[in-house]
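Side project, low priority. Logging it here so it doesn't get lost.
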Amino acid sequence: MRKALVAAIGLAAIGIAPALAADLAARTYTKAPPLPPVNNWSGFYIGGMGGYGQEDASGPGTMSGGFGGGTLGYNWQMGSLVLGVETDAAGGDISASTGIAGLATGTAKIDALGTVRGRVGYAIDQVLLYGTGGFAWADTKLSVSTLGTTISDSNVLTGWTAGAGVEVMFAPKWSVKAEYLYRSLSGQTYFANVIPGGIPTGTLNVNSGQVGVNYHF
């Protein structure tokens, strides 16, 4: 029986082998589809942004309000490291009023503000975490109203800014970001042509949070 069984298995194998070989020859194999490319942050981008700012102070006369404008920048990516430069400018209504009812009212306002900053970030595919810092400016106006008369004076304040943010590429060429900035702007003298010696102001410090959408070229 054992010899007969071995012989039967041998004959079956001889019969199956040609069919198996033909089947293997008929099969075709295709390469697996390539993996999607890892996101790359290099290149120019342009976008819009808006946010809210508040003077780093307390009590009457503390300025606060919103702003909105545009952004232009460029990134260089080297592995996971992303270096960049960015500039933004916005119109604003960051203001405060105080005074003596019926006698005099003073209003301070930031009409426009902007920055020119460097960025250093770490990319995790479509997510970019970054720190940022550089030059900041703000166009400010101080107004005083009394006895039906209003006088105003404007100055551009300059200083520095620093902060951090996160940016996410949510579609090809499109990203959304959120960031925090601290701005420290040097003081100026107002109404020097009206009041001898003018009215000097101290450093203006502003905390701001902003969000934006960018298009990458």
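Brief comment: The chain has one domain: 43-216.
Revisit when time allows.
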